Amino acid sequence: MAKLTFKTDKCKGCGLCVDVCPKKVLALATEKINIKGHHPVEAVNESECIGCAFCATMCPDCIIKVER
C-alpha cells in the first residue's frame, strides 16, 4: 500500500489527478475549502492505492507525494 501526502493549501481543485487515478482513490473534497477558496483533493480510499503515481505526475502544481 502506498502513502499519499497532499499540500492541500496549494491545490486549485482542477481534478486532473482524480480523472487519471486507475483505482478511483482520489476525489475533490465537498465539505472542505482551502485557503485559495478551492475544494482540494483528498484520498477517499487510500488502502486501494497501488502507488502508480499517475496522480502526482498529472498534477500541474506538484501538490501530491506518493511513497511506496
* Beginning-to-end CA distance, first to last residue: 7 Å
Oligomer category: single chain
Q: SSE order in H/E notation?
A: EHEEHE
What do the pLDDT scores average to?
96
Please report which band the strand proportion falls in: under 5%, 5-15%, 15-25%, 25-35%, 35-45% or over 45%. Answer: 15-25%
The helix tally amounts to: 2
Largest sheet: 2 strands, antiparallel
Q: Report the count of strand segments.
A: 4
Q: At CATH's second level, what is the architecture?
A: 2-Layer Sandwich
From the spread of the alpha carbons, the general shape counts as: globular
Largest sheet: spatial strand order: 1-4
| CATH class placement | Alpha Beta
Q: How many distinct folded domains?
A: 1
Fraction in helix: 10-25%
What do these coordinates show?
With 68 residues, the chain is α+β, with helices and mostly antiparallel strands. The protein has one domain: Alpha-Beta Plaits. Helices cover 15% and strands 21% of the residues. The protein has 2 helices and 4 strands. The chain has helices at residues 16-20, 54-58, and strands at 3-6, 26-28, 41-43, 64-67. Strands 1-4 form a two-stranded antiparallel ribbon. The chain is globular, with a radius of gyration of 11 Å. The model has no long low-confidence stretch (mean pLDDT 96).
